[in-house]
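USER:
I wish I could look at a protein chain and see how it folds. I am handing you a single protein, as its sequence and its fold in token form. As I understand it, each token names a local backbone shape. I hope you can help me see how the letters and the tokens relate. The protein I mean follows directly.
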Amino acid sequence: MNAYHNTINWKEILHFKNIFLNLMGVAFITLALKGFMIPNKFLDGGIIGVSILIHKITYFPFGVLVVLLNIPFIFLGRRMLGKTFAVQSFLTVLLIAISINFVHIEAVTSDKLLIALFGGCLIGIGMGLCIRSGSTADGIEILALLTTRKIGLNVSEVIFGLNTLIFLAAAIAFGISTALYSIVTYFAAIKSLDYIVHGLEQYTSLHIISSESDKIKSLIVKKFGKGITIIKGERGYLPDTFEVRHNCDIVVTVVTRLELLRIKNEIGEVDPNAFMYIQYIKEASGGILRNKTKH
């Protein structure tokens, strides 16, 4: 495991923007769960859905279930994405558990369609904000990232398969009607999360054009352990100085969505004027996508 994965970046964890996004995400998730979903036995997908299911069957405290069920996946996240990600994710899950136990919110409505749509949208927005802060509020995505290496499916397909099992269990426990509405909740959450974080794609292609390309190459390869491809190009061609141009190396790297925020922030520190653009890709293979000795 490289130095980046072994080190906890407290500066990043305690950054005001990340704290604000995390707290807002937890607030949206709490409102969705307490105001819409839990009182009406509606499930989302993932670990939160499993927690609601077990809570309603056994009456075991929901907040405790969320923490206990997420811990194994946060540990996997530590191995795959580093200690900073694991600490941020654990704090997010802990905040959700605390808010669920201590924040009182009356059920907003008993209308099943409104619960499915608004509950799903709110929890999707909340999870998206948490991801934008550099953490995750649900360990199922980490499990999906790991599982794709074993069975060859992409992340969306794995998550859909796992959630299908959850909704089948909901149909048995709560009836087919509630399970079907829970599926609507799940898709509303996915669309909202899509809007916040610009896609659930497993891999993201990041292109960087910068006058500090050598430093950025070193940063991506040595600090993050990622592979890069260099495209020879030219930069310049500005409206006022069209004739001024410079040869440059366009740095291309492929990362997972959960790694993207940290890499962009680090590049911004090296060159605040760096031009970056992102392309979401469904699948990638070969190269240094996940180095087994580092994850």
Notes: The first strand starts at residue 203 and ends at 209. Residues 291-295 have pLDDT under 50 and may be disordered. Residues 16-37 form the longest helix (22 residues).
